[in-house]
Amino acid sequence: MEKRKLPNASAVLILGIMSILTCCCWGVIGLVLGIVALVLAKKDIALYNENPEEYEGYSSINTGRVLAIIGIVLSAIYFVINIYMLVVMGEQGIKDFQQNLIEKIKHQQEMEEME
Prior knowledge:
Blueprint: E1 4-5, H1 9-21, H2 28-50, E2 55-56, H3 58-114
Parallel strand pairs: 1-2
């Protein structure tokens, strides 16, 4: 009998990768994608455990699950940092911080050009 591919193997892998890539979007998008990947992975792992000789692609599910966990952790850290900065510095403080950072980078580039 030919082995069938697990139904959500590719989706879990793609969502796991996307959760890492989007963790810097305030942390929210990465959290959502990572959680969806974990839910899909859980369903496919249960399906695989019922009948392991019938399915292939378990390694993709496992890889996607690990990537989703990493994406969730990174997104959660980034989300907490953003909330902390918003509470401590406020919206105007964040804008001032970003503006100062841009000015420093421009100044550093000017100094490098002069050398």
